[in-house]
Amino acid sequence: MKRLVMSMLMFACLTGAAVMAQDAAPAAAEAPAVAAEVQEQTAETAPKPKSSTGFFAVVFGSGWLGVLLWSALFGCGAAAIYFSVDSWVLIRPQKIMPQTLIDRVKAGMAEGDVIKAIKACETEPGPMANILSAGFSHVEEGFDVIQESIGAAADLETERIMQKLTWISVCANLAPMLGLLGTVQGMIMAFRTLATGAPDVGALALAISQALWTTAGGLTIAIPAITVYYSIRNNANRLILRMQAMTMELIKDLRNVEVVND
């Protein structure tokens, strides 16, 4: 009887040990998976390092040549804005051919008083006043000489007007070239980083950012500048044609001027 009880106790112990071993095996297998999942969650919640490829990092991280290049780009953009505003303010009908000047010259010519017309031009200087003054100064030499003088003065005033617009065109053409130079510099920096054998990913990304940012900067300046240039140039051409036509209308009464030869 005692042997039977002892046998039953041993069998129960062995059975319990086997069951515990079976339960412990899946738990041990799941432990690495749980640890890996905890590490992934920790990595996701950990603060990520800030990117070093922002705009200011590109500007100040591209060396002295890059800083000089960006300074030239900013200067080109500022010059384009200045010349655009200056041309827009000056190349207008109120500045080139003011209505008060036209009215006063018409009144003087209607009265046959050339001196009055000349004084009107002197009190309101401008492109049209300069052209009329050139014609009135040769009133005693005949209408043909007056026309030649007005034509020469009109060409001079047209050149002066177009010179202002030329600077906008210069900025529009210079900005993409500066951007291209920055692109070349960025690619040189990128390949120099790759040549080290074990390139720094951050330095490589910074060099590529330099190449792309300068290209974008040059195009950002050039596209509006060239649009403004053609817009103001077309407006200037229309105003110049109107001014020349109005000038010939104002001096038509000088056809009847008699030239007295001493």
3D architecture notes:
The chain is mostly helical. It has two domains: 1-45; 55-256, no CATH class. Helices cover 82% and strands 0% of the residues. The protein has nine helices and no strands. The radius of gyration is 42 Å and the shape is rod-shaped.
What are the key terms here?
mainly alpha; disordered C terminus; 82% helix; 262 residues; 2 domains
The rough form would be described as: rod-shaped
Number of strands: 0
Radius of gyration using CA atoms only: 42 Å
- Count of the domains: 2
Percent range for β-strand residues: under 5%
Class derived from helix and strand content: mainly alpha
> Could you name the ranges where pLDDT drops below 50 across 5 or more consecutive residues?
27-31, 46-51, 258-262
Secondary-structure element pattern, one letter each: HHHHHHHHH
Task: Name the average pLDDT.
Answer: 75
Question: Which range best describes the helical content: under 10%, 10-25%, 25-40%, 40-55%, 55-70% or over 70%?
Answer: over 70%
Distance between the termini: 167 Å
Count, helices: 9
Specify the oligomeric state.
Answer: single chain
How is the biggest beta sheet arranged?
none
